[in-house]
Design a protein that fits this description.
By secondary structure, the protein is mostly helical. It has two domains: 163 residues, no CATH class; 294 residues, no CATH class. It is 70% helix and 0% strand. The chain contains 19 helices and no strands. Helix 2 packs parallel to helix 6, helix 10 packs across helix 15 and helix 12 crosses helix 13.
């Protein structure tokens, strides 16, 4: 059940009405959130509801027993068991086939026997996301940063809540559980203006921009490999960079907007990442819920930045290696993560030189000792460099295999081939997608505040008109969101 579809619209209309009809009865309302979210998840494949139920039961009672347990050794044993359980589920369903294939490949090269069973394991949708939700919940209890959910139904509703279930954002239990256990009342105003803006902007980004970039440029280039010239290949890579931003930020926008309409608030997940001046800033703005999760539950426990420089570089590379592997069971994802880890390590090493250069080129001196570049030029060059570095890594993220990636890199050397993709409409779609970052965060707060002052009927008419325009300009059909596969 995809967000921008008629089936989801009918589902959400029913859920929204019942949500506010039951809001005065918190216990029944929590059960309703759980049931509607399980129905949403079961729409794809009801067989995996058992997996979601097992995760709910084990992590809820594990959190309760962990909270009640006294003694450092016993608590350490509990948290270790819960981490092994969650990572075991994720490892089996997501990485078993990858592990077995590589084990057989290694065995053949070493000429040793390998008898691991070959199983056709189906990856349950959203497994990576609800596993990270569960891990953050039990780890926060272990650290003493929160108490367990009062009832299992509340934790189950948090874990399975349908707006964030299959593709994030990864909302911390400490942010959402209190809202579920103390639901809003009908007297509290609903931020309809912001919700409407987020949902409409998300649908526009997905259906008009992301789908168009995919169909017109990104997919042909990545499917064609070396068949395209260097200019077309570069444009296809740029198109994918903007496509994945528009696609994933669209899902996050819609999820946040849907939750707002139901009275729950999520933190933002994107904040104009390609406007960043450094890669460190990029990861504070891109998929914020995942990057902050990796920071708090992996990078900081490894030692973070409170250790020797070489250990900081090790921590960065290891964190992003695992972050790349989280995205998928393929060496291309591992390399994508490794590139970002190495980038960040090099950025730290070169930081003193960059500051010196920035001080010389980007800051005007009052002594008259030489001309200085205006700051906007220095910032523009920094953003341009950052975009190139990130796009280079996207090649490995998008490529299906290592051979596909190397063919695409080889195409970057062909400057004599035909140029077919650099058309006015393609460049316009790419530019609109890139500039849509101005809609992130609080940048259009005045628009949604203005909408909020209008009567609900007027807001509905405006939304219907905007949706009509979106459907007229967007490609036919609705492609799945990119992050559904992770």
């Amino acid at each position: 059940m995809l967000f921008p579809t008629v089936s989801f619209a009918l589902f959400f209309m029913l859920v929204l009405g019942l949500n506010w009809a039951l809001i005065r009865r918190p216990a029944l309302w929590a059960w309703f959130l759980l049931a509607s979210s399980w129905f949403f998840y079961g729409w794809w494949d009801w067989r995996f509801l058992g997996l979601l139920a097992a995760s709910t039961i084990v992590n809820h009672w594990g959190g309760v027993w962990l909270y009640r347990t006294r003694g450092a050794r016993a608590r350490h044993a509990w948290i270790t068991g819960l981490i092994v359980f969650n990572l075991g589920l994720l490892g089996f369903f997501k990485y078993y086939g990858f592990f077995v294939q590589n084990a057989y490949l290694l065995a053949s090269r070493l000429h040793i026997p390998c008898s691991l069973p070959l199983l056709d394991v189906i990856l349950p949708i959203g497994l990576s996301f609800f596993t990270f939700h569960a891990l953050s919940y039990v780890i926060d209890i272990y650290r003493g940063e929160m108490t367990p959910a009062k009832r299992m139904v509340g934790f189950g509703a948090y874990l399975a809540y349908f707006p964030h279930l299959v593709a994030g954002p990864i909302v911390r239990a400490g942010d959402i559980l209190p809202q579920i256990e103390r639901p809003p009342t009908r007297l509290e105003p609903i931020d309809i203006g912001r919700a409407a803006c987020l949902i409409l902007v998300g649908i526009f980004k997905k259906m008009v921009i992301a789908n168009s970039l995919s169909a017109r440029m990104a997919d042909p280039v990545f499917a064609g490999g070396a068949a395209h010239s260097a200019p077309d290949t570069i444009l296809g890579v740029y198109a994918y960079a903007v496509q994945i931003y528009c696609d994933f930020s669209a899902y996050s926008d819609i999820a946040i907007g849907l939750a707002l309409l139901m009275g729950l608030r999520f933190p933002i997940n994107f904040d104009a990442p390609y406007f960043s001046l450094s890669l460190q800033e990029f990861w504070r703005r891109w998929h914020i819920s995942l990057s902050s999760w990796l920071r708090d539950y992996l990078y900081v426990p490894l030692g973070g930045s409170r250790c020797a420089p070489w250990k900081i570089y090790r921590n960065l590379i290891l964190t992003f290696l695992l972050g790349g592997l989280w995205h998928g069971a393929a060496w291309t994802f591992v390399l994508w993560g490794a590139l970002h880890g190495v980038y960040l390590a090099l950025e730290r090493i070169l930081q003193p030189f960059v500051r010196t250069a920035a001080a010389f080129f980007g800051v005007r001196s009052g002594t008259g000792a030489g001309r200085r570049w205006p700051t906007w030029i220095a910032h523009g060059l920094a953003r341009l460099w950052l975009f190139q570095v990130v796009c280079l890594a996207w090649i490995f993220f998008r490529a299906q295999t290592w051979d596909d990636a190397t063919r695409l890199l080889g195409a970057l050397t062909d400057w004599k081939g035909a140029v077919t993709l650099w058309t006015g409409i393609n460049l316009s779609v790419l530019a609109i997608g890139f500039l849509s970052q101005f809609l992130d965060g609080q940048r259009i707060a005045r628009v949604w505040d203005g909408l909020a002052r209008l009567p609900p009927v007027v807001i509905g008419l405006i939304a219907a008109a905007v949706l009509t325009v979106i459907l007229a300009f967007g490609p036919e059909g609705v492609a799945p969101f990119i992050y559904f596969q992770f």
